[in-house]
Design goal:
about 300 residues; alpha+beta; 14 strands; about 15% helix
Length: about 300
Protein backbone atom coordinates (compact mmCIF):
# COMPACT_ATOMS: atom_id res chain seq x y z
CA UNK A 1 0.00 0.00 0.00
CA UNK A 2 1.51 3.37 -0.97
CA UNK A 3 2.24 5.92 1.75
CA UNK A 4 -0.35 8.65 2.14
CA UNK A 5 0.72 12.18 1.10
CA UNK A 6 -1.27 13.54 4.07
CA UNK A 7 -0.17 13.04 7.69
CA UNK A 8 -2.26 11.76 10.58
CA UNK A 9 -4.47 14.62 11.80
CA UNK A 10 -6.30 14.65 15.12
CA UNK A 11 -5.33 11.02 15.53
CA UNK A 12 -6.95 9.96 12.25
CA UNK A 13 -5.44 8.73 9.01
CA UNK A 14 -6.67 10.39 5.83
CA UNK A 15 -9.24 8.50 3.78
CA UNK A 16 -7.74 6.78 0.74
CA UNK A 17 -9.88 6.20 -2.36
CA UNK A 18 -8.94 4.32 -5.50
CA UNK A 19 -10.79 5.70 -8.49
CA UNK A 20 -12.78 2.92 -10.20
CA UNK A 21 -12.56 1.91 -13.83
CA UNK A 22 -15.37 4.18 -14.91
CA UNK A 23 -15.24 6.86 -17.57
CA UNK A 24 -18.58 8.51 -16.79
CA UNK A 25 -16.89 11.24 -14.73
CA UNK A 26 -14.80 13.86 -16.44
CA UNK A 27 -13.18 15.18 -13.25
CA UNK A 28 -12.19 13.79 -9.85
CA UNK A 29 -14.43 16.42 -8.25
CA UNK A 30 -17.46 14.98 -10.07
CA UNK A 31 -16.60 11.50 -8.79
CA UNK A 32 -16.26 12.74 -5.20
CA UNK A 33 -19.63 14.49 -5.41
CA UNK A 34 -21.20 11.22 -6.55
CA UNK A 35 -19.29 9.18 -3.97
CA UNK A 36 -20.33 11.44 -1.06
CA UNK A 37 -23.72 12.89 -2.08
CA UNK A 38 -24.54 14.05 1.45
CA UNK A 39 -21.23 15.90 1.85
CA UNK A 40 -20.95 17.79 -1.43
CA UNK A 41 -20.55 21.18 0.28
CA UNK A 42 -17.77 19.98 2.58
CA UNK A 43 -16.03 18.15 -0.29
CA UNK A 44 -16.07 21.37 -2.33
CA UNK A 45 -14.64 23.28 0.63
CA UNK A 46 -11.84 20.74 1.00
CA UNK A 47 -10.97 21.00 -2.69
CA UNK A 48 -10.91 24.80 -2.45
CA UNK A 49 -8.57 24.58 0.57
CA UNK A 50 -6.19 22.21 -1.23
CA UNK A 51 -6.97 19.31 1.13
CA UNK A 52 -7.75 16.69 -1.52
CA UNK A 53 -4.55 15.22 -2.92
CA UNK A 54 -3.47 12.63 -5.46
CA UNK A 55 -0.69 10.15 -4.72
CA UNK A 56 2.23 12.46 -5.55
CA UNK A 57 0.92 15.08 -3.12
CA UNK A 58 -0.59 17.42 -5.73
CA UNK A 59 -3.88 19.05 -4.63
CA UNK A 60 -6.71 18.54 -7.08
CA UNK A 61 -8.85 21.35 -8.46
CA UNK A 62 -12.40 21.26 -9.74
CA UNK A 63 -11.01 20.68 -13.24
CA UNK A 64 -8.48 17.92 -12.44
CA UNK A 65 -9.24 15.14 -14.96
CA UNK A 66 -10.60 11.82 -13.76
CA UNK A 67 -7.89 9.10 -13.82
CA UNK A 68 -9.08 5.49 -13.41
CA UNK A 69 -7.21 3.51 -10.70
CA UNK A 70 -5.51 6.63 -9.32
CA UNK A 71 -5.41 7.17 -5.54
CA UNK A 72 -7.04 10.20 -3.93
CA UNK A 73 -6.59 11.25 -0.29
CA UNK A 74 -8.68 13.53 1.89
CA UNK A 75 -9.76 14.02 5.49
CA UNK A 76 -13.37 13.03 6.17
CA UNK A 77 -15.33 14.74 8.93
CA UNK A 78 -15.92 12.03 11.55
CA UNK A 79 -19.37 11.55 13.07
CA UNK A 80 -19.74 13.33 16.40
CA UNK A 81 -20.24 11.04 19.38
CA UNK A 82 -20.15 11.78 23.10
CA UNK A 83 -16.92 10.83 24.84
CA UNK A 84 -16.84 7.31 26.24
CA UNK A 85 -16.44 8.20 29.95
CA UNK A 86 -13.64 5.75 30.79
CA UNK A 87 -9.89 6.23 30.70
CA UNK A 88 -7.14 4.14 29.12
CA UNK A 89 -4.46 3.06 31.60
CA UNK A 90 -0.89 2.66 30.38
CA UNK A 91 0.85 -0.56 31.44
CA UNK A 92 4.12 -0.18 29.51
CA UNK A 93 5.81 2.20 27.09
CA UNK A 94 9.16 2.05 25.32
CA UNK A 95 10.52 3.04 21.92
CA UNK A 96 8.73 0.15 20.21
CA UNK A 97 5.65 -0.72 22.25
CA UNK A 98 2.76 0.92 24.04
CA UNK A 99 0.72 -1.53 26.11
CA UNK A 100 -2.52 -0.30 27.62
CA UNK A 101 -5.39 -1.50 29.78
CA UNK A 102 -8.42 -0.74 27.61
CA UNK A 103 -11.77 -0.05 29.29
CA UNK A 104 -15.07 -1.60 28.24
CA UNK A 105 -17.08 0.28 25.58
CA UNK A 106 -14.07 1.80 23.78
CA UNK A 107 -13.33 0.45 20.30
CA UNK A 108 -9.74 -0.31 19.32
CA UNK A 109 -9.79 1.32 15.87
CA UNK A 110 -12.22 3.49 13.88
CA UNK A 111 -15.11 1.51 12.43
CA UNK A 112 -18.63 2.51 11.50
CA UNK A 113 -19.82 5.35 13.73
CA UNK A 114 -17.00 4.78 16.24
CA UNK A 115 -14.22 6.98 14.89
CA UNK A 116 -12.73 9.53 17.27
CA UNK A 117 -13.91 7.62 20.34
CA UNK A 118 -11.46 4.78 19.79
CA UNK A 119 -8.31 3.75 21.60
CA UNK A 120 -5.91 4.39 18.72
CA UNK A 121 -7.25 7.90 18.02
CA UNK A 122 -7.24 8.90 21.68
CA UNK A 123 -3.72 7.64 22.25
CA UNK A 124 -2.28 9.14 19.08
CA UNK A 125 -3.68 12.52 20.11
CA UNK A 126 -3.02 12.46 23.85
CA UNK A 127 0.52 11.02 23.59
CA UNK A 128 1.49 12.69 20.29
CA UNK A 129 2.22 9.35 18.62
CA UNK A 130 1.04 9.70 15.00
CA UNK A 131 2.53 6.34 13.93
CA UNK A 132 0.81 4.38 16.70
CA UNK A 133 -0.79 1.21 15.35
CA UNK A 134 -2.51 -1.76 17.05
CA UNK A 135 -0.59 -5.05 16.93
CA UNK A 136 -3.94 -6.82 17.50
CA UNK A 137 -7.50 -5.84 18.43
CA UNK A 138 -10.03 -6.19 21.19
CA UNK A 139 -13.77 -5.90 20.63
CA UNK A 140 -15.33 -2.62 21.77
CA UNK A 141 -17.11 -4.39 24.63
CA UNK A 142 -14.05 -6.31 25.85
CA UNK A 143 -11.65 -4.70 28.34
CA UNK A 144 -8.02 -5.50 29.08
CA UNK A 145 -4.50 -5.72 27.67
CA UNK A 146 -4.06 -4.17 24.24
CA UNK A 147 -0.68 -3.90 22.47
CA UNK A 148 0.31 -1.08 20.09
CA UNK A 149 3.48 -0.42 18.14
CA UNK A 150 4.85 3.10 18.56
CA UNK A 151 6.81 3.53 15.33
CA UNK A 152 6.36 2.27 11.82
CA UNK A 153 9.61 0.26 11.78
CA UNK A 154 8.42 -1.87 14.71
CA UNK A 155 4.97 -2.54 13.33
CA UNK A 156 5.55 -5.66 11.25
CA UNK A 157 7.57 -7.76 13.76
CA UNK A 158 4.91 -7.45 16.48
CA UNK A 159 1.93 -7.79 14.18
CA UNK A 160 3.45 -10.98 12.78
CA UNK A 161 3.61 -12.42 16.31
CA UNK A 162 -0.15 -12.13 16.58
CA UNK A 163 -0.80 -13.20 12.99
CA UNK A 164 1.28 -16.37 13.49
CA UNK A 165 -0.35 -17.13 16.86
CA UNK A 166 2.92 -16.84 18.74
CA UNK A 167 1.27 -14.86 21.53
CA UNK A 168 -0.26 -16.60 24.53
CA UNK A 169 -3.48 -14.85 25.50
CA UNK A 170 -5.41 -15.36 28.71
CA UNK A 171 -8.89 -13.99 29.29
CA UNK A 172 -11.09 -13.85 32.35
CA UNK A 173 -14.87 -14.12 32.21
CA UNK A 174 -17.86 -14.23 34.55
CA UNK A 175 -20.69 -16.56 33.63
CA UNK A 176 -23.13 -18.97 35.29
CA UNK A 177 -21.53 -21.77 37.26
CA UNK A 178 -21.65 -25.16 35.55
CA UNK A 179 -20.74 -27.88 38.08
CA UNK A 180 -22.03 -30.55 35.66
CA UNK A 181 -19.28 -29.77 33.14
CA UNK A 182 -15.87 -31.34 33.56
CA UNK A 183 -13.34 -28.52 33.59
CA UNK A 184 -10.79 -27.93 32.29
CA UNK A 185 -12.00 -28.66 28.79
CA UNK A 186 -11.23 -27.75 25.21
CA UNK A 187 -14.02 -26.43 23.01
CA UNK A 188 -13.39 -27.09 19.34
CA UNK A 189 -15.69 -26.01 16.52
CA UNK A 190 -15.98 -24.20 13.23
CA UNK A 191 -17.13 -20.58 13.58
CA UNK A 192 -18.26 -18.35 10.72
CA UNK A 193 -19.21 -14.68 10.83
CA UNK A 194 -21.19 -13.28 7.91
CA UNK A 195 -21.07 -9.61 6.99
CA UNK A 196 -24.15 -7.75 8.13
CA UNK A 197 -25.18 -10.39 10.68
CA UNK A 198 -24.48 -9.54 14.32
CA UNK A 199 -23.96 -13.06 15.62
CA UNK A 200 -21.23 -15.48 14.63
CA UNK A 201 -22.33 -19.11 14.49
CA UNK A 202 -20.96 -22.61 14.69
CA UNK A 203 -21.34 -24.77 11.59
CA UNK A 204 -20.29 -28.19 10.38
CA UNK A 205 -16.84 -28.45 8.85
CA UNK A 206 -13.14 -28.39 9.69
CA UNK A 207 -12.35 -26.93 13.11
CA UNK A 208 -11.08 -23.35 12.99
CA UNK A 209 -11.67 -22.27 16.63
CA UNK A 210 -10.23 -23.82 19.79
CA UNK A 211 -10.56 -22.50 23.35
CA UNK A 212 -9.23 -23.97 26.61
CA UNK A 213 -11.67 -23.21 29.44
CA UNK A 214 -11.14 -23.69 33.17
CA UNK A 215 -12.83 -22.56 36.39
CA UNK A 216 -10.85 -20.27 38.69
CA UNK A 217 -13.46 -19.85 41.43
CA UNK A 218 -17.17 -20.29 42.13
CA UNK A 219 -19.46 -18.02 44.15
CA UNK A 220 -23.10 -19.02 44.37
CA UNK A 221 -24.55 -19.40 40.91
CA UNK A 222 -21.64 -17.62 39.22
CA UNK A 223 -18.14 -18.68 38.31
CA UNK A 224 -14.95 -16.95 37.25
CA UNK A 225 -13.44 -18.63 34.21
CA UNK A 226 -10.00 -18.63 32.62
CA UNK A 227 -10.18 -18.71 28.82
CA UNK A 228 -7.16 -19.47 26.66
CA UNK A 229 -7.94 -19.15 22.95
CA UNK A 230 -5.69 -21.10 20.59
CA UNK A 231 -7.22 -19.34 17.59
CA UNK A 232 -8.74 -15.91 16.99
CA UNK A 233 -12.13 -16.12 15.32
CA UNK A 234 -14.63 -13.27 15.64
CA UNK A 235 -16.57 -13.57 18.94
CA UNK A 236 -14.87 -16.92 19.56
CA UNK A 237 -14.93 -16.78 23.36
CA UNK A 238 -18.52 -15.57 23.51
CA UNK A 239 -19.66 -18.25 21.05
CA UNK A 240 -17.86 -21.07 22.84
CA UNK A 241 -19.13 -20.10 26.28
CA UNK A 242 -22.66 -19.83 24.90
CA UNK A 243 -22.34 -23.23 23.23
CA UNK A 244 -21.68 -24.72 26.69
CA UNK A 245 -24.89 -23.17 28.00
CA UNK A 246 -23.04 -20.59 30.10
CA UNK A 247 -23.17 -17.30 28.15
CA UNK A 248 -21.10 -14.43 29.53
CA UNK A 249 -22.87 -12.00 31.83
CA UNK A 250 -23.63 -8.73 30.06
CA UNK A 251 -23.54 -10.32 26.58
CA UNK A 252 -26.13 -8.62 24.37
CA UNK A 253 -25.53 -10.96 21.41
CA UNK A 254 -25.49 -14.47 22.85
CA UNK A 255 -27.69 -16.36 23.22
CA UNK A 256 -30.19 -13.69 22.10
CA UNK A 257 -29.59 -10.30 20.52
CA UNK A 258 -30.98 -7.34 22.43
CA UNK A 259 -30.42 -3.64 21.86
CA UNK A 260 -28.23 -1.54 24.15
CA UNK A 261 -28.17 2.24 23.82
CA UNK A 262 -24.85 3.75 22.68
CA UNK A 263 -24.50 5.61 25.99
CA UNK A 264 -25.74 2.79 28.23
CA UNK A 265 -22.71 1.72 30.26
CA UNK A 266 -24.66 0.00 33.02
CA UNK A 267 -24.03 -3.64 32.15
CA UNK A 268 -20.56 -4.23 30.64
CA UNK A 269 -19.70 -7.53 29.02
CA UNK A 270 -17.93 -9.60 31.65
CA UNK A 271 -14.90 -10.41 29.54
CA UNK A 272 -11.38 -9.19 30.27
CA UNK A 273 -8.16 -9.74 28.33
CA UNK A 274 -6.18 -10.56 31.47
CA UNK A 275 -2.71 -11.03 29.97
CA UNK A 276 -0.59 -11.48 26.86
CA UNK A 277 2.80 -13.23 26.79
CA UNK A 278 5.31 -13.50 23.97
CA UNK A 279 8.97 -13.68 23.06
CA UNK A 280 9.82 -10.13 22.03
CA UNK A 281 11.02 -10.17 18.40
CA UNK A 282 13.25 -7.11 18.85
CA UNK A 283 14.66 -7.34 22.38
CA UNK A 284 14.69 -11.14 22.54
CA UNK A 285 13.18 -11.13 26.03
CA UNK A 286 10.24 -13.16 27.29
CA UNK A 287 7.52 -10.60 28.00
CA UNK A 288 4.20 -10.68 29.83
CA UNK A 289 1.71 -7.87 30.38
CA UNK A 290 -1.14 -8.19 32.88
CA UNK A 291 -4.34 -6.15 33.22
CA UNK A 292 -5.00 -4.38 36.52
CA UNK A 293 -8.76 -4.31 35.95
CA UNK A 294 -11.39 -6.46 37.65
CA UNK A 295 -14.74 -7.62 36.37
CA UNK A 296 -17.58 -5.93 38.26
CA UNK A 297 -19.95 -8.90 38.24
CA UNK A 298 -17.56 -10.95 40.35
CA UNK A 299 -17.57 -8.39 43.12
CA UNK A 300 -21.38 -8.41 43.01
CA UNK A 301 -21.67 -12.19 43.17
CA UNK A 302 -23.36 -13.86 46.09
CA UNK A 303 -20.96 -16.16 47.98
CA UNK A 304 -22.00 -19.77 48.07
CA UNK A 305 -20.97 -22.60 50.38
CA UNK A 306 -17.27 -23.42 50.40
Amino acid sequence: MPDAPLPVRDGLNPTRLRLPENTSWETIAEFLAARFPNDTTRIAEKIECGEVLVQDGTPITFSTPYAPRAFVYLYRDPPVRPRVPFEIDILHRDENLLVVDKPHFLATTPRGSWVTETAVVRLRTELDLPELSPAHRLDRLTAGVLVFTVRREARRPYQMLFDRRLVEKEYEAIAPAAPHLGFPLDVRSRIVKERGILQAREVEGPVNAVTRIDVVATAGDRARYRLRPRTGRTHQLRVHMNSLGIPLLGDNLYPEVYEVGPQDYSNPLQLLARSVSFHDPITGRSTRFVSRRNLAAWGNSTPGPR
